[in-house]
Amino acid sequence: MNTSALAFYSLVACAMFAVVWLLTQPLWLHARRSRVRAGPFPPAWRAILRARVPLVARLPADLQLRLKQDMLVFLAEKPFLGCAGLVVTDEMRVTVAALACVPLLGARRGYYPQLQRILLYPDAFWAQHSRVAEDGVHSDGLHALSGQSWGEGQVLLSWADVLQGASDPTDGRNVVIHEFAHQLDQAKGFANGAPLLTSRKAYHAWSTVMQAEYDALRLRLDHGQDGLIEPYAATDPAEFFAVCSELFFERAAELAAQHPQLFAELRSYYRSNPLSWS
Q: Which of 150, 151, 180, 240 lies deepest, with the highest CB count within 10 Å?
């Protein structure tokens, strides 16, 4: 066999191998994740959930089991890196994983497939950011942040703010849920407050309701009026979605009463109903 023929057959073999890999990789991934989900949940992790994530105790038993199974996969696949001298512990990993998996309880969306790593800082970290004051005025510059989500596959979190947000599951402030809502929004490559939906009809309903609620919030801020949705949500539609996701999972009854259409859209997207949680 001459050199050109050998090169041709080698190329064909490589192409066939690539095709086989592409066809079998999803099956292999599903099988591996099934094995991980079926594994034991360490007792030490259960203790961490009881101590640090009281939101878990509000979930029905079937959702608690599903959350723990999802956490096993999340923790097996997503690396955590400590920044500014922070040494990452199981307490940190389990706390973040539990809250990151709450938005996945209703719909199967993978495990944040674009996410490559979670960076943990001991406290707030400085970064360029746009901020909205209580009077609705925007300011761009260097700000101390509790969290940030990058479309390039990173979530940055302040451990102090993670603890604070996790400690009270009814205050509507949870930096982990907020940043992982951004990850869902960024799954299409950019964040605009409209995560991946199932149909054109769903996008139309979403944009109609969310735009109306976003405009109403900005109008209230212009008139100096307070409300359930904090001013930071008026930064842009992406922040509006993330802030409202915090409220959806932590202050569902108030959100449903004061913003029923908004609540309905979020319930349809997340395929979850926190009103049924204890």
A: 180
Question: pLDDT tens, 189-230?
Answer: 999 999 999 999 999 999 999 999 999 999 999 999 999 999
Q: Please report which confidence band the pLDDT of residue 15 belongs to, taking 50, 70 and 90 as the band edges.
A: very low
Whether this model's pTM surpasses 0.90? no
